[in-house]
Structure formats: structure tokens, C-alpha cells
Write a structure and sequence with these properties.
GO molecular function: heme binding; iron ion binding; monooxygenase activity; oxidoreductase activity, acting on paired donors, with incorporation or reduction of molecular oxygen
CATH superfamily of the domain at 79-90 and 104-129 and 153-243 and 310-477: Cytochrome P450
Radius of gyration: 26 Å
Strand content: under 5%
CATH topology of the domain at 79-90 and 104-129 and 153-243 and 310-477: Cytochrome p450
Structural class: mainly alpha
Cofactor: heme
Number of helices: 22
Number of strands: 7
Keywords: Heme, Iron, Membrane, Metal-binding, Transmembrane, Transmembrane helix
Binding site for heme: 459
Bound molecules: protoporphyrin IX containing FE
Transmembrane segments: 20-45
CATH class of the domain at 79-90 and 104-129 and 153-243 and 310-477: Mainly Alpha
Order of helices and strands: HHHHHEEHEHHHHHHHHHHHHEEEEHHHH
Length: 478
């Protein structure tokens, strides 16, 4: 034993001697070549090993041997269609990268995300760190920390100890209708898609910390937030594929490329507003506010956590709801019969105030069918949101998935499954929600709910989004 150790020691020290001799003697170019060769060998061997781990799952050839297919797809902006096509072609669990799978099986998604699951958020979520240096509830992968954060914010998101959420949404609906009315009076064309973003951004800032940004009032992209976010979004999606990019971008030399609270415009400007709002709330003897942020702080959110959560509220709560409004309005404009039926229902409804209340809207069956069908035909968040298989691996429908694999889901594929929605799954047809048995309706509703994720990671802002939608289609079409 001792002689073996001595021999090993001898071999290692002679190897070190050879490498140091080589490094001392070789010109710089040879050292660079040697480094490249080591990286190449490491890359090929780790790719080969990863290929073998998941070789029993089919997918595009490029996705089986590299992450290039996934990178190309998320960078192109059409990944939601690619993931759908891949599940159609290669099966209900398909391969989209060296360590990435995608599924269109709603039962498997519920299995991965239920409250007692052993699955965890994967490195995909590192891309959701809106402030590059700190986590928020959506990017937090440590489950103990995530549960603690969620519990501090659950009451605020549910509107339990917050005053006037609905009244504030009403005020913003009135402002928004006023803006559209001014365009109509002038008979000027209006970019409804853009104005809807103004509306949702004002709503979320108003209910989150007590003041709308002023997008609707000024009818402008305040701080160029929308312009810069749309420009940077593809980069965010690329980071979900290559999470190590975040560490690279965070180094002192490249840090300047990331948004910072010192910026005058864009996401950086919103970061500085979040910082100021949080600082204001933590001043000594300051009055506790009855808005969402006030509720989070009452339940123990710290100043640094508040800065990150304000950013998350804005990012998660604006473009999502705006997408739902835009896509459903597009379908209503393209389907005059459906719009007519909706208007008839609204005209015969008992609406007490100038803006329909949430409870009045909830009992309008055709309106609810339109909202659900809008979500189904265009789910607002269509990224993979991959979860990581527990270390011991998992078996689903008799197929083993090794521990550490990232499994995402294609919500676009799920909301187009013919076994759930019927042969006309590609059509916008609100009636499918009305003429159906109670059991079938339950199945459809619980499958559609996956657009808000599920269980442990269910969207915290779901009920707020639904209040906005319940009002905007009624006030926008009557
Ligand atoms: C139609 C609109 C919306 C849709 C489709 C939607 C969907 C989602 C989805 C899919 C997730 C990811 C969960 C996961 O990690 O698997 C999520 C998370 C989240 N959403 Fe939403 N969302 C919407 C609106 C909102 C609004 C209006 C707010 C804020 C008021 C909001 C706040 C959040 C928060 C805080 C999280 C993180 C939850 C956590 O990490 O536990 N969302 N949402």
C-alpha cells in the first residue's frame, strides 16, 4: 500500500515537472494551444457523457449533442412554437438540450410542481434575477428561502390586508378608457397593444406601492422601460439556457453591460425607483402603508428583499396581463360574432357602477368563457420554467429520468392537446367552455390553470390579473 502511494506520488510529481518545464519553455502561443486542447477534450468528453445520460429521449439531432438548438430557439423568439413542434414530433417527453427535456403532459407537470414535490427549480431560474446581484421570489431556487419569502407575501398578493386594490384598479381602468376615448374623438389610429402595456404598468405600480408610474397619463413609455425591456428580453432568455453567463456578466469588466440603479432610463431607472421606495418605507417612525408593499413589510420582508420584490411585481405583473389582454382583444376583433355575443351579455347585465365590479363580472358566463379561451389560445408565459429532477432520479410512465436533468413544459403544447380541448383545439371558440359536462369542465379548467404554474410555484398574482381582465374586456367593448 505504502509503495503504491509512493509510486503514485512519484508519477504525479514527475507530471507536474513535465508541465512546468513545458510552460517555462514553451512560447505563449503553445500555452494557448495547450489550454484550448484541454478545453476541447473536456467539452467533447462532457458532451458525450451528457448525450449518453439522456439517450433514451428523442429530439432534434442538434439538441441531442449540444445546447446550440436550445440557444438558437430561445434567441429566435419563437421557442414556444419550437417546443410545441418538438413534443408533436418526438413524443410527450422530448429532448431539447444536453441536459434539457420538455413535456406536454399536464399530469407530469402537476407531479413535478405539487406542494410536496422533490423536484426543485433548475438553473433556468437564474435568468429571472431582474436585479443581477440579488434574488427575488421567482429566481430563488433554495426551497427553504423560497417558502419563507412566499409566506411573507401571500397575504399582500391575496389582498387580505391591503386597502382598495379593486378601487385602484377601477381608477386606472377609467384613466385607460379616457385615453382610448381621446384617440377615438380625434379619429386617430391607436396602437392598442402598446397602450395596454401602459395600463398594466400603471395598475401594478399603483397597487404595489401606492402611485402609478404615469404611462397612461403622459401617454408615453415612461423612462423607456418598455423599449429597453423588449430589447433585453432575448438576452434574459439566453441566460436561462446558459446560466453561467450571469456570473460572467457580473464580473467587474462586463458589469457595465447590465442595468444599474445609476441608469437614467430603462430597467436601471426602475431599479433606482424600487431602491428609493424601499428606503422610504424603512425610515424610522414612518407610517405603515396599507398597500401590497406595506403588507409584505408587516410580514417581515427586509429592505433589500423589498427592492427585489418591487422589481418582480413590475416585471411579472405587467407584460403577462398585457399579453392576455392584447391577444384576447385581437381574437375579439377577428371574430365579430363572438364580440357581438359578448356585447349582448354585457348590455343585459346588471352593472351598478361606471366600472363593472369583480363580483359582477365573475357571474357573466360568456365573459368568463372569453377570458379562459384567450388564456388558452395565447398563454402569456411560454418559457420552459424547467424544474430539476431530484438527485436519485425519477420514473414517469415507466421511463427513468436521471437526477439533475432539467425538465421544462410547453404550455403552448398543453393548451393545444386535442385529447383535452377537442379536434378544433387550434380555434378560438369560447363556447367550448359552456356546452360541456361538469367533469370535462373540471379537467379543462385544471389543465388551463397550468398557465399560472402549479402547487409550490403557483403564480402569486393570479387573482390580481383576473380582476384586471374581468374589468378591461367589459369596459373596452361596451
Ligand atoms: C395573466 C397573467 C399572469 C400569468 C399567466 C402569470 C404566470 C406566472 C407563472 C407561469 C409563474 C411562474 C411560476 C414558476 O416558477 O413555475 C408566475 C410567478 C409569479 N407571478 Fe405571475 N402571472 C401573471 C400575472 C401576475 C401578476 C399580475 C403578478 C403580480 C401582481 C404576478 C406575480 C407573480 C409572482 C410574484 C410570481 C413568483 C411566484 C413564486 O416564485 O413563488 N403574476 N406567474
Amino acid at each position: 500500500m505504502l509503495s503504491n502511494t509512493a509510486q503514485l506520488f512519484h508519477h504525479v510529481s514527475s507530471l507536474i515537472d513535465h508541465v512546468s518545464y513545458f510552460l517555462n519553455a514553451a512560447p505563449l502561443a503553445s500555452v494557448a494551444l495547450f489550454t484550448l486542447a484541454v478545453i476541447f477534450v473536456w467539452f467533447v468528453s462532457s458532451s458525450t457523457w451528457q448525450y449518453y445520460r439522456l439517450r433514451h429521449f428523442d429530439g432534434p439531432v442538434l439538441a441531442e449533442i449540444s445546447n446550440f438548438w436550445l440557444f438558437k430557439s430561445v434567441d429566435s423568439g419563437r421557442s414556444y412554437l419550437d417546443f410545441w413542434e418538438v413534443t408533436q414530433k418526438y413524443g410527450t417527453i422530448a429532448r431539447v438540450g444536453l441536459n434539457d427535456l420538455v413535456t406536454d403532459d399536464p399530469a407530469f407537470v402537476k407531479h413535478m410542481c405539487n406542494v410536496k414535490t422533490d423536484y426543485r427549480r433548475s438553473s433556468w431560474y437564474d435568468g429571472m434575477r431582474f436585479n443581477p446581484t440579488s434574488n427575488n421570489c421567482l429566481s430563488t431556487r433554495d426551497e427553504t428561502a423560497h417558502t419563507a419569502l412566499r409566506s411573507k407575501m401571500a397575504a399582500g398578493y391575496a389582498g387580505r390586508d391591503v386597502d382598495n386594490i379593486e378601487a385602484k384598479i377601477d381608477t386606472n381602468v377609467r384613466e385607460f378608457m379616457g385615453l382610448l376615448g381621446r384617440y377615438a374623438d380625434r379619429k386617430a389610429p391607436v396602437d392598442l397593444g402598446r397602450k395596454v402595456q401602459y395600463f398594466t404598468l400603471d395598475v401594478i405600480s399603483d397597487i404595489a406601492y401606492g402611485a402609478p408610474f404615469g404611462f397612461v397619463e403622459t401617454d408615453t413609455d415612461v423612462y423607456e422601460y418598455i423599449k429597453t425591456t423588449e430589447k433585453n428580453l432575448p438576452m434574459v432568455m439566453v441566460v436561462t439556457v446558459f446560466p453561467w453567463l450571469l456570473r460572467l456578466l457580473n464580473n467587474p469588466i462586463l458589469k457595465g453591460l447590465l442595468p444599474s440603479a445609476k441608469d437614467k432610463l430603462g430597467f436601471g431607472r426602475i431599479m433606482s425607483i424600487a431602491k428609493d421606495v424601499a428606503a422610504e418605507r424603512f425610515k424610522p417612525d414612518v407610517k405603515a402603508e396599507r398597500d401590497m408593499l406595506g403588507s409584505f413589510i408587516r410580514h417581515g420582508l427586509t429592505q433589500t428583499e423589498s427592492e427585489s420584490e418591487i422589481l418582480l411585481q413590475i416585471a411579472a405583473g405587467s407584460d403577462t396581463t398585457a399579453s392576455a389582454i392584447r391577444s384576447t382583444m385581437l381574437e375579439l376583433c377577428a371574430n365579430p360574432d363572438i364580440l357581438r355575443k359578448l356585447r349582448q351579455e354585457i348590455a343585459s347585465a346588471n352593472i351598478a357602477g361606471d366600472v363593472i365590479s369583480d363580483s359582477e363580472a365573475k357571474v357573466l358566463p360568456y365573459l368568463q368563457a372569453v377570458i379562459k379561451e384567450g388564456f388558452r389560445i395565447f398563454p402569456p408565459i411560454a418559457g420552459l420554467m424547467s424544474k430539476e429532477v431530484p438527485p436519485q432520479g425519477d420514473t414517469w410512465n415507466g421511463v427513468f429520468i436521471p437526477g439533475g436533468t432539467r425538465v421544462g413544459y410547453s404550455i403552448w403544447a398543453i393548451t393545444r392537446r386535442r385529447d383535452v380541448w377537442g379536434q378544433d383545439a387550434l380555434e378560438f371558440r369560447p363556447e367550448r367552455w359552456l356546452n360541456v359536462s361538469p367533469d370535462k369542465l373540471k379537467d379543462m379548467e385544471s389543465t388551463l390553470d397550468l398557465i399560472f404554474s402549479y402547487g409550490r410555484w403557483l403564480c402569486l398574482g393570479k387573482s390580481i390579473a383576473l380582476i384586471e381582465l374581468n374589468k378591461v374586456f367589459v369596459e373596452g367593448t361596451r
